[in-house]
Design goal:
Number of strands: 0
Radius of gyration: 16 Å
Largest sheet: none
Order of helices and strands: HHHHH
Distance between the termini: 38 Å
Oligomer: single chain
Shape: globular
Amino acid sequence: MLLARDGLLVFLGAGLGGVCRWLIGAGTLALFRQTRFPAATFVSNLAACALIGLLAGLALRSGGALGVPARLFLVTGFCGGLSTMSAFGLETVALLRRGDFFVAGTNVVLTLAVCCGAVWVLLRKFESLP
């Protein structure tokens, strides 16, 4: 029974995260029109990394009070559905195969630096709060 509940929590969180990913993609496309840079994937990765940093920071601040069901739904499910590292890999390789090395490199550097930075900043912010 516990395994079924946990799986359902991940499933529902991932579905919600996937819908948010789709909305971010549609909104980014409407905002930027056509661009060589995969902005929707970047924004989704940034949002997922910022959220996971926030959740980890809150869990640390509360002494781990973020329970297993909430972690399964929010971290594993929602952030997993929202983050698009597989799309990041595919889009980066496509850029490389087209010979667009500068845009591919920019995508890799920005995604890694900014997304890891978001996790770091938000995690540290909530660690240091009283």
